[in-house]
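Data card: per-record layout.
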Amino acid sequence: MTKLIRGFNETNIWNLLAFLIVAATVIPVANLALGVLPGENENWRHIREYLLKDYVVNTLILFGFSGLFASLIGVSLAYLVTVFDFPGRRFFQWALILPLSVPAYIAAYTYSGMLGYTGIITRALSGLFGRDISIDIMSVPGAIFIFTFFLFPYVYIISRAFLAKYTASLIESAIMLGKNYTQIFFQVILPVSRGVIASGSALILMEVANDYGVASYFGIDTFSIAIFKVWFGMGDVGAAAHLSLYALAFIVFIILAEKAIRGQKRFAIATTKVRLLTPHRLRGAKAAIAAGYSMLVWSLGFFIPFLQLVAWSALTYEEVLDQSFLQATVNTVFAAAFCASLIVCCAAIITNSARISRSRLVRTAGKLTAVGYSAPGAVIAIGVLILFIWLNAMTELFWSYSLITSIYMLLFAYLVRFMAVGCNSLENGFEKIGKTYFEASRTLGFGVTRTFFKVDFKMLLPSMIGAFSLIFVDMVKELPLTLILRPFNFNTLATKVYEYAHDERVHHSAPVALIIIAICSISVYSLSKLDKE
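The structure for this 533-residue chain is written out next.
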């Protein structure tokens, strides 16, 4: 009886901790409603009447074309490297993931430099055609280009895994019916991959919604830009909250549309004998076209900007690698490592509580953490700011320290934004280890907490390390949250890159950008190798 009571209390403690953590991640978004409670002011009425239409139109254009083009490139490349064998295929299988290691804002700064009046691409095209050639990349089409070639791996990764495992019999049956590979792609692959493509596209659109660096540098008015302008330019939290709700509505629409698309057509394997697809060997012109297309996308999405950053770094590294750079590196590593560790611990509490509880409410509470990751960084920042203004007012009577200007506000915002990444990773880890060992330990008289640390923790450790790596990389690249909520004179590698580019010193941003890319590339390569295993 004593053991049962102890187990009951332990379970309740885990559930309580999980609810507190989930509430902490949801409250900042819920606070946006508090920000609009005072009603409409003059700033918001002006924005709604004269500016809101431009924000909506520009955001929709970026969403529509970036999502469409990135999805087409991602699924077509996944089809090529999975179904066909051609020169360089083994290299492109993992190399096509590398564009994801280049933050979109770094890509924007790099291409604007290469396509500027004295840029290497502009000079090369002018010399080739014998006249002045200029390409205006600092425009809406230019932003679409950046988002397309640096976000398509979201669709590529998911589509490649799906095609390799689940389409062998479908492709072979279509060939027996006389279909060629082009017909198979449009009539078989695209229909059965609809849900997979929708999932990848939703991730792309969330990244576009979260963007600030590209839109700011190219001068495109989107919701993220508007929130920054209202907050920094007008100091109006209420108007920023109104804009944040509109931006959040876009994200909710994306999530609902993605679920609707996946729900319309479901694809299921009718047999348990699932085998991997054997690639079809391409020869001659077809092999050259496949390799050339893969090389073109990889070069535009990674190799060309990487080479340009290396060339600029050789010219400016002595000026850039100073004390402020070292401090920004320390700040980045500290913030990312500390928050990633904390998030993994909190995610372990949430996912383990959901696993051991019989309550549907407890099992579904962890899903609410997706709100933080789904919402744009600028939206999270405004929600966190409203919360800390309230907390500061509550504590100023007996504590003179200002929470609003502290590092704690930024670290808490990181916690809100990236909690879902940790929860998803550990949820998958718990699914792999199952509950057999947990139940055996409980039968032997161990409590829930002791079972977790003595049994589950050791088996869950690889998933925890993977979650830490993913969160660490995301934080290294994070820009909007840091720009809004960072304390005075607190820089990270991402904000250093932004400041150099904002001051028209793109060349000086190159060494810092290369370090960010190196950190992300190592993680991307490791994850691709882990996926193969």
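Known properties of this structure: DSSP finds 24 helices and two strands in the chain. The radius of gyration is 25 Å.

See the next section for split statistics.
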